[in-house]
Amino acid sequence: MPPVRLTIEAKHSSARAGVLHTPRGDILTPAFVPVATKADIKGIESAKFPSLGVQTLIANTYHLYLSGLDAVEKGGGVAKFMNWNGPTMTDSGGFQVFSLGTGFGKKISKFTPEKKDLQQNGLAKAPEGSEDPRGSFDGDLSSSAPAVYDEDLATSHGKLAIVDDEGVSFTSHLDGSLHRFTPERSVEIQHRLGADIFFAFDQCTAPTDSYEEQKEAMERTHAWAKRSLSTHRQNLDANTKQGIYGIGQGGQFDDLRRESARTIGNMGFDGFGLGGSFSRKYGDHSLQSALAMLTELPEGMSVHGLGVGEPEDILLGAAHGVDTFDCVTPTRNGRNGGLYTKRGKIQIPNAEHQYDYSPIDEGCQCPTCQNHTRAYVHHLFRTREILGPILASMHNIYFLTKLCSDIRESILNGQFEQFKNSFLETYKGN
Fold first, then answer.
1. Does residue 313 share a domain with residue 273?
2. Would residue 326 show up in a list of annotated catalytic residues for this protein?
3. Which residues contact 349 (CB under 8 A, 6 or more apart)?
4. Are residues 77 and 199 both part of a single domain?
5. Which has the closest alpha carbon to 200: 277, 256, 269?
6. Residue of 158, 168, 223, 174 lying closest to 69 (CA atoms)
7. Is residue 97 part of a domain?
8. Under DSSP, is residue 411 helix (H, G, I), strand (E, B) or coil?
9. Domain boundary among 303, 324, 345
10. Smallest Cα–Cα separation from 318: which of 406, 252, 205?
11. Mean pLDDT for the chain overall
12. Looking at the structure, do residues 80 and 194 belong to the same domain, yes or no?
């Protein structure tokens, strides 16, 4: 029996509720997976995770390789090292290939917004000196506007990244030293990190890449997937303790997406990662077209949405059969004062909250809402107290884990469509 497998408990059209079995415990799906980049969810100690609904987390192979691989391995693997007794995941370092190579210097992230998206979320008119939770916009507001600037991405690399068919060479953002990732090396590192689920090495692309560029990256990803899977299967001990997911690519092109899903889906992986990056277009959501690739996968194969974490995107992904989702948005937004509520996002540093003694989100059971008011969290941000971003991040993580839990219950009860429509009507109608 494989170490990682999905049991589907109920379906509502393509949406499904299940149990993802792993060596360190079961994950009830759909589930949101917070990002623990360097073996920590920024600002939140592991003892708080259960109260936030956290079932599992995903750590960053690239950063842990550069800053503490030996310590993590000698500490018993990423879960034990950070004092977490639940399941864990690690990425492959492939997104760093994207940021170091294709995305280097382009200010690119997983989603590129159009003018309407920027305006509706306040990015095109952010006040001078402020930092919007989704970044700062740099460029004109044409239909081909560049992506939202990603500060973590922009500061996570050195000045060199060379991608070839064998792997990627890059310099460390810590000391400028030269390093090389190949599929075999990525798997070896992730074996040492010891997560329950890890991902094959891939080449992520930018949403703006041409058909030819997307096809080349997809074919390279498929070749790297075979090498990653072969390396893992040859390690008999790791095969009893860790599951490996392949990643599908193809960008904005439906034929490439479907080809990638068929290819990766038939290789023998334990699960599938929805990879790549997307343009967010209201009324014409490229994520939705990418999700169509999931129909090409074997029945019952678990699916993870890499970098998918906005509430609307989670609902869309769940509707197409995505089981787990990871994204940095809850902590990144939280650090910058952006908080989720049932009626949409709010900016807690704004003056309107200074004398508002209600919870962040009425009825929310997270530790922040149960113990503090909007006025207090506003005060913490205004006075630049570190507790403010921590409380905001805790609330945002709970909001997304609770959303996934509610989606699960609605599927089990046969009420998913009603729940989705009701949530979006309230969330977008603020």
1. yes
2. yes
3. 130, 337, 378, 381, 382
4. yes
5. 269
6. 174
7. no
8. helix
9. 324
10. 406
11. 86
12. yes
Q: Which of 43, 94, 38, 41 is nearest to 66 (CA)?
A: 38
Selecting among 91, 196, 209, 361, the annotated active-site residue is 91
What is the per-residue pLDDT for 149? 35
| Position 154 pLDDT exceeds 90 | no
131 within domain boundaries: no
Q: Are residues 15 and 77 in the same domain?
A: yes
Task: Using the structure block, give the residue that is written with the tokens 């991608």.
Answer: 163
What is the pLDDT at residue 159?
A: 52
φ, ψ of residue 346 to 5 degrees: the values are -130, 155
345 and 309 fall within a common domain:
no
Name 76's Cβ contacts closer than 8 Å, sequence gap at least 6: 194
> Does the predicted TM-score (pTM) go above 0.70?
yes
Sign of the dihedral through C-alpha 224, 79, 398, 395: negative
pLDDT band at 174 (very low <50, low <70, confident <90, very high): confident
Q: Do 309 and 348 lie in a common domain?
A: no
Count up the domains in the chain and report the number. Answer: 2
Q: Residue 347: helix, strand or coil by DSSP? A: strand
With tokens 């998913």, the residue in question is 416
Q: How far apart are CA 143 and CA 140, in angstroms?
A: 9
Neighbours of 237 (CB within 10 A): 8
Secondary structure class of 184 (helix, strand, coil): helix
**Residue 421: pLDDT above 80?**
yes
Known catalytic membership, residue 132: no
- Specify burial of residue 70 (Cβ count, 10 A radius: 0-12, 13-18, 19+): exposed
| CA 359 – CA 9 distance, rounded (Å) | 35
User: Residue 12: pLDDT above 90?
Assistant: yes
Half-sphere exposure of 292 (CA within 13 A, CB side): 15
Structure tokens at 224: 């790297």
Q: Is-contact 152 141, C-beta < 8 A?
A: no
What's the chain's length in residues? 430
Same domain, 215 and 308: yes
Q: For residue range 364-387, what is the model confidence (pLDDT) as tens digits?
A: 999 999 999 999 999 999 999 999
Query: In the prediction, which pLDDT does 114 show?
Result: 46
Q: Indicate which residue of 313, 323, 326, 361 is catalytic.
A: 326
C-beta of residue 317 within 8 angstroms of C-beta of residue 291: yes
Instruction: Give the 3-state secondary structure of residue 17.
Output: strand
Helix intervals (H) in 383-415: 387-412
Structure-block tokens of residue 337:
């004062």
